GDT1 family protein (Neisseria weixii), 190 residues
Amino acid sequence: MEAFFSSTLGVMIAEIGDKTQLLALFLATRFSQKNAIVLGIFVATLLNHALSAVIGVWLAQYISPELMKWIVGLSFIAVGLWLLLPDKDENPDSRWLKYGAFGATVLLFFMAEIGDKTQIATVLLAAKYQEMFWVICGSVLGLMLANVPVVYLGQMLMKKIPAKAVRISACILFCVLGAITLLGRGIVLN
């Protein structure tokens, strides 16, 4: 269950203020079908993070446990430091909006997650814990916990969340996970 809780918390915090959260806000202002947007976010995230977890577990099978410890630990710290950089507000290309609330959300969210901090975090968490199912469940839940309120509460919520404090908290969380990994505590690697 540690994999589930670490994935949920890590991805949820990393997602706050992320470009995909801004995308959720954008989609919520463009489409009135909030449930279709939420379902689209879920489908896109499930597909993207399942692929990420498979990659993470696969990498862990072909790399020695000692080397994996260093790669994962240092990568957690790098992701933590990356979280200190705010995402740029990127407006999605309007050509995708013709697919409606659900279609546009699936396409735009899936593409926005490629190479995103939360996708990389999912790869690292899967490599660390070797529990693909729980990492996928946790990372998808974490992303949903961060984005669903944005879809329904929109701009009101974004004004009340201090993005800088959240980025610093997420940085600390990932750096601590990196340090714990490097020290060899709580690691499940074969």
User: Anything to note?
Assistant: The two ends are 18 Å apart (CA to CA). Residues 1-183 form one domain. The chain has one domain: 1-183.
